[in-house]
Amino acid sequence: MRRINWLGLAFLSPALVMVTLFFLLPVVLTGFFAFTNMSTATGVMGGDYLLNTSTLRALADQGLPKETLAKLEAGGYRVDEAGLAALAAATSPATADELAQLHAGAEFSDRRDMERALKDLRANAIRNTRDRKAATELFKRSILNERFSEEAAFRAALSETGTRPELSDQITEAAFTGWVWTTDNVKLLFALPSTLRYAANTLLYVTLTLAFNVGFGLFLAITTFYLPKGQGALFRAIWFLPRILPPVLYVLMWRWFTWDTGFLSTVSGYLGMSPKNWMLDTSYHAWTAVVLINGFVGASMGMIIFSSAIRAIPTSMLHASEVDGASRWQQVRWIIVPQLAWPILFITCYQTLSLLTSFEYILLATDGGPGRSTEVWSLAAYHTALSNYGGNLEYGLGASFALVLVVIGIGASLIYFRLFNFKRLITKPLIEG
Amino acid sequence: MPAKNWPILLLLTVVTLPLLIMCGYSVIDAFTDTAPGSLVPTRFTLEHFRFLWEPVAEARGSIWVATANTFVFATTSALVVTMVSLTAGYALSRLNFPARGFFLAGLIVLHAFPTITLIIAIFLILQMLGLYDTLIGVIVVKTALELPLGIWIMKGFYDTVPWEIEMAGVQDGASRATVWWYLVLPQVQPGLMALILFSFLSGWSEYILPQVLAPGSDARVLSTYLSSLILDDTKADFNLFKAVGLFYATPVVVIYLLFQKHLMNIYGGGTKG
Fold first, then answer.
1. A386–B268: do the CB atoms touch at under 8 Å?
2. Of A245, A304, A399, which is closest to B120 when you measure between CB atoms?
3. A82-111: per-residue pLDDT in tens?
4. Mean pLDDT, to the nearest integer, of A285-297?
């Protein structure tokens, strides 16, 4: 009989809540955000309806008829409560009362008509021209630059301007300041030539760094294996530093090393060369720096895993080969490396995924420069959505960049799950079983 | 193997030299002055550590606020990750409950998944929740993203505890919760220690999350303090940078030297990219 232990779910629930909220939800929402035009301009939460001169310009570009634009821009004059109250405050209540008796609710499309109405008041006529012009302005009712929080109110105001009803959808859409659903991001992603550039950069970055990680990790593991125990451990401890040092500090050391007043420039200065920035001088310098900076960190992981795999090789095999007269190179080539096939595959898979998506070290070292030569896909997502010099952060477009990586990430994780047969890790618990 | 080792030693020393130079000069330059165009320090000075007792113009903010924030950030996230992983890891390792296989498979997939791709969505979620630019927000996010790895590690430690201990406890009539608390927890104490240290170091070093989710000066941590110092300055004062860097890295190096054995259990598991 198998008993079900509810304690298990209770023990798991805090983790489930946190992982769902800040892990699974972001995965799903990346998919949603990728199909919006969210940006600094639209904000993250809802929006208002607002027509201003730049909206009108955009509408003109969309081919809105000139007369409609003129109507939206001009507006008209209406004798309403708000205007009368303002008039009473500006002149006298008697003036406002008389205007209300004669013209309450009246509308004038022309400024001169409104002025005439004020001039022709019998008892309280406003004779001074400047006063009359100011009073006229109190009754001007325009949709321009007025902010509506409700769509219905905006549409009502729009119809009052006399715009043709069939155009109101288009105008309302243009006037909305919040974000809307759109597939433009995906189209843009395929249309932009820089997309291909970022993809190519990413491919180059992952390939070179991975080759360095595996090759140099193997080199460190094998050489330290042949050293006496203490010396080998010392070198492994030193090569572990890039991994445990905080990234900001680790990249700072590289910046100094390659700076035009730093180590490389000083040493080459001894040789009579002029100082230069060895990290950002040309794109070749930048790529070398990016691969080495990431490679030193990645190689230490390879080193640890390969080292423990090498130690697991039965020493009798190595001794036997020595008796047979094998050189060290032959030992490495025919005994050690074949035994490491599985760890090498593991490191390759694991690091492909993490290199594909990581940008921390590149951001700190070259920030994608010089130009955009070391801008990889994930860094482009970061720059688009979270940090750029223009100041308008395009969250939606950035999310569609990220969505590509999220999809690759999920796919790769699932493939690794099968490849490394993680199912065998799922053993049945014994007590209830 | 007594064969001649000096060629290997020489080769390793040569390839390690850049790293040694970088680390060595980080310490040397923090305490000395050097004439331009030279690598030989001319005098000893503590002037580069002036940021400790007076505000540095370029840094916009006190180092002590940043240090306190970093400590709170790293400690809180480490404790929460460890506590939650302690129960969740046990559940996944030992208890039988509905959909256990699904949760285990999900955990394995999540722990391989690169979390940094989620940063844009998380940024927007924090804005909607009103947690943007607060230390709380960064702590919660860091904890959640670190959890799959923490649970995975903790489950690994539970898996090594012999079943006989629990069987004996259950036979004697104790509940599973009692058995876990009194019998199993003492067995995984080294793992618990390793996980706390690992998550503390991970929080202490974290850069991208505070940079994106809490860029204001109230929630500034040491990594963003140092990076803003480096990036804002038009004339690079590497002596100052290295002094700040040394101050920042000291706890990391000390913890690493003291607890190397504990930590290797985790780093060796091939778990951090």
1. no
2. A399
3. 788 888 888 888 888 888 888 877 777 777
4. 92
Residues of B in contact with A222 (CB under 8 A): none
Closest to A99 (Cα-Cα) out of A79, A115, A82, A116: A79
Closest residue by Cα to residue A266 from B34, B18, B36: B36
Residue in A11, A240, A402 closest to B117 by CB: A402
* Beta partners for residue A144, in sequence order: A51
Domains of chain B by start residue, with CATH: 67-267 (1.10.3720.10)
Which residue of A224, A257, A266 is in closest CB contact with B22?
A257
d(CA A150, CA A49): 7
User: What is the C-alpha to C-alpha distance for residues A282 and B105, in angstroms, rounded to an integer?
Assistant: 46
Contacting residues of A for B127, CB less than 8 Å apart: 44
The reply to whether residue B273 touches residue A257, judged by beta carbons under 8 angstroms, is no
**What's the start-to-end Cα distance of chain A, in Å?**
7
* Residue of B16, B76, B93, B117 best to disrupt the A interface, most CBs of A under 10 A: B117
Q: Which amino acid is at B28?
A: I
CB pairs under 8 A between A and B: 301
* Average pLDDT value for chain A: 83
Taking an 8 Å cut-off on Cβ atoms, the answer to whether A259 and B23 are in contact is: no
Q: From residue A423, give the alpha-carbon distance in Å to each of A20, A414, B106, B110.
A: 23, 12, 11, 15
Give the contacts of A83 (CB within 8 A, at least 6 positions apart): A138, A139
Partner residue facing B204 (CB), from A27, A246, A406: A246
Half-sphere exposure of A340 (CA within 13 A, CB side): 27
Selecting from A18, A226, A382 the residue whose C-beta is nearest the C-beta of B144 gives A18
Distance CA A214, CA A211 (A): 5
Question: Percent of chain B at pLDDT above 90?
Answer: 26
Residue range A19-70, pLDDT digits in tens: 888 788 888 888 888 888 888 777 777 677 777 777 777 777 877 777 777 7
B-chain residues within 8 Å CB-CB of A225? Answer: none
As a whole number of angstroms, the distance between CA B267 and CA A304 comes to 8
Q: What are phi and psi of A108, to 5 degrees?
A: -125, 130
Q: Where are the domains of chain A?
A: 48-75+142-177, 77-141, 192-393
Q: Do the Cβ atoms of A259 and B238 come within 8 Å?
A: yes
CATH architecture of A192-393: Orthogonal Bundle (1.10)
- Can you spell out the DSSP letters for A75-135? -EEE--HHHHHHHHHHS-HHHHHHHHHHHTT-EESSHHHHHHHHHT-TTT----HHHHHHH
B125 Cα distance to chain centroid? 24
Residues whose CB falls within 8 Å of the CB of residue A229, separated by 6 or more in sequence, listed in order: none
- Encoded tokens for A217: 């990790």
- pLDDT of B68 above 90: yes
Contact between B267 and A269 using a beta-carbon 8 Å cutoff: no
Q: Do A399 and B121 touch (CB under 8 A)?
A: yes
Q: What is the C-alpha separation between B177 and B169, in angstroms, rounded? A: 11
pLDDT exceeds 70 at position B272: no
Q: Which residues does residue A107 pair with via DSSP β-bridges, in sequence order?
A: A78
**Cα gap B218→B197, rounded to integer Å:** 26
pLDDT tens digits for range A332-360: 888 888 888 888 888 888 888 889 888 99
